[in-house]
Write a structure and sequence with these properties.
Elements (H helix, E strand, L loop, with lengths): L3 H12 L4 H17 L12 E5 L4 H10 L8 E3 L6 E6 L5 E6 L2 H9 L6 H11 L2 H4 E6 L16 E2 L6 E2 L5 E3 L2 E3 L2 H5 L7
Parallel strand pairs: 1-2
Antiparallel strand pairs: 1-3, 3-4, 4-5, 6-7, 8-9
């Protein structure tokens, strides 16, 4: 495993800037890997890990850099819960740990470095220094992953009976006897502009 500073440099490059969220994300992911005993997430252990992230902010890019989990590899899963948290699953053992940033860490950052006026700078420095127990809650959890959620899953491709688009990974919806994609079933996040 790389050092904290090496991962932080990698995260900065991938994300485009350095910020408190990057520091938090690197620490959070490193702790998750440590808890699971995954030492080489980019090498020999790369197929052991699936990670759920609960926010689409800076820290998520850092988590992806440290873990090597990517959406395109089906190893990074996003749940839009708006929480600075991630769950790390060792698919070989079934063990899973959820790690969340403590809300109290922001106030603690102010206490540790009141001489720094810029909140981001204050948090970046404090988040590097704080013990894991002051920064995060750690909870062992159980996550049921159906086969279609695993990286490398090869399932049937279904065609939506309404729009004709292909649907992968059992994401189709049966509605009134028809096989539909989620958009045609009424779950669309977009509307036609024409």
């Amino acid at each position: 495993m790389k050092s904290f500073d090496e991962y932080l440099r990698d995260a900065e490059q991938a994300h485009g800037h350095i910020c408190a969220g990057q520091v938090l994300g690197v620490r959070l992911a490193m702790l998750g890997l440590e808890q699971l005993g995954i030492e080489d997430p980019h090498g020999k252990d790369r197929k052991r890990l699936v990670t759920f992230v609960e926010i689409d902010r800076c820290a998520t890019d850092a988590v992806a850099v440290v873990t090597g989990c990517r959406l395109g590899k089906r190893a990074l899963k996003f749940r839009d819960w708006g929480k600075m948290a991630a769950t790390f699953i060792d698919v070989s053992s079934g063990r899973a740990v959820r790690i969340a940033a403590k809300e109290s860490s922001k106030a603690l950052a102010r206490q540790l470095h009141p001489e720094i006026e810029n909140k981001n700078q204050q948090q970046m420095i404090a988040y590097r220094e704080m013990p894991d127990d002051d920064l995060f809650t750690t909870q062992w959890v159980k996550v049921e992953l159906p086969p279609e959620e695993f990286p490398g899953y090869k399932g049937d491709r279904i065609t939506c009976e309404q729009c004709g688009e292909g649907i992968n990974f059992r994401r189709e919806v049966l509605q009134e006897g028809k096989t539909l994609c989620r958009a045609c079933a009424g779950e669309s996040y977009y509307q036609s502009a024409t």
